[in-house]
């Protein structure tokens, strides 16, 4: 009887061990499946971020080109005003390009999705920090600078145009009411010179944003591959 009891206890313990192992294996499989789902969502968000960054890069590139040309044209007008030698054959086109505001659109759908899902889920801390810096600092700096440019355009330049121009067409032409008065208008000249400095600051912010995107993309690609 004692031998039978001992065998029964051993059998029962074996059964319990098998059940526990089965539960542990089931939990492990469930955790593995859940992690795969999480990784899939992360890859989806990172892939969208990549697409958004490429779109941002193209928009920044075009805005930089336009802004650089605006600054060059505005500098030409400033030089002409300082020398009181306005080139009548081209000044109307040039005056259509001074102090204009260049709006830029950023796309952050992927980043917002990743934030909603949880940035802390990103295993690559370097990527997490780079994304936070780009979206919370670089993009904000660009938007703040372009907002300042637009504010100056609306509050300084347009009121001046209404009082001193016969016609003005955005980025195409501006027709002064009195060319001689424009030559000696120190207020207008000062506004242009201050605006060039503001525009150069915006250009620097755009350059920084473009550089950061190029730094993020390789890290992003490596991280996406690591999750797959």
Key terms for this structure?
two-stranded antiparallel ribbon, mainly alpha, 6 helices, rod-shaped, 4% strand, 80% helix, 228 residues
How would you characterize this protein structure?
Strands 1-2 form a two-stranded antiparallel ribbon. The chain has 228 residues and is mainly α. Helix 1 packs antiparallel against helix 3, helix 1 (2-82) packs antiparallel against helix 6 (186-227) and helix 4 (125-164) packs antiparallel against helix 6. The protein has one domain (41-227). The model has no long low-confidence stretch (mean pLDDT 87). It contains six helices and two strands; from the N terminus they run H-H-H-H-E-E-H-H.
Task: Quickly describe the structure.
The protein has 228 residues and is mostly helical. The protein has 6 helices and 2 strands.
Number of helices: 6
Percent range for β-strand residues: under 5%
Biggest sheet strand line-up: 1-2
Instruction: Give helix % range.
Output: over 70%
Largest sheet: 2 strands, antiparallel
Provide mean pLDDT, rounded.
Answer: 87
The parts where pLDDT drops under 50 for at least 5 residues are: none
What is the string of helix and strand elements? Answer: HHHHEEHH
């Amino acid at each position: 009887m004692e031998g039978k009891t001992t065998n029964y206890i051993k059998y029962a313990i074996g059964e319990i061990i098998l059940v526990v192992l089965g539960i542990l294996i089931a939990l492990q499989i469930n955790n593995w499946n859940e992690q795969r789902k999480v990784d899939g969502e992360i890859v989806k968000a990172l892939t969208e971020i990549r697409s958004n960054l490429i779109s941002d890069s193209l928009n920044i590139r075009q805005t930089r080109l336009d802004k650089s040309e605006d600054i060059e044209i505005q500098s030409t007008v400033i030089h002409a005003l300082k020398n009181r030698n306005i080139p009548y054959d081209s000044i109307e086109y040039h005056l259509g390009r001074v102090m204009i505001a260049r709006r830029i659109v950023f796309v952050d759908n992927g980043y917002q999705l990743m934030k909603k899902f949880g940035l802390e889920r990103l295993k690559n801390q370097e990527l997490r920090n780079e994304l936070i810096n780009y979206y919370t600092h670089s993009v904000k700096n660009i938007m703040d600078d372009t907002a300042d440019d637009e504010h100056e355009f609306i509050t300084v330049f347009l009121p001046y145009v209404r009082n001193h121009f016969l016609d003005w067409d955005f980025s195409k032409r501006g027709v002064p009411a009195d060319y001689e008065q424009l030559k000696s208008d120190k207020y207008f000249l000062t506004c242009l010179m201050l605006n060039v400095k503001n525009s150069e600051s915006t250009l620097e912010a755009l350059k920084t944003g473009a550089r950061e995107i190029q730094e993020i993309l390789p890290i992003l690609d490596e991280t996406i591959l690591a999750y797959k």
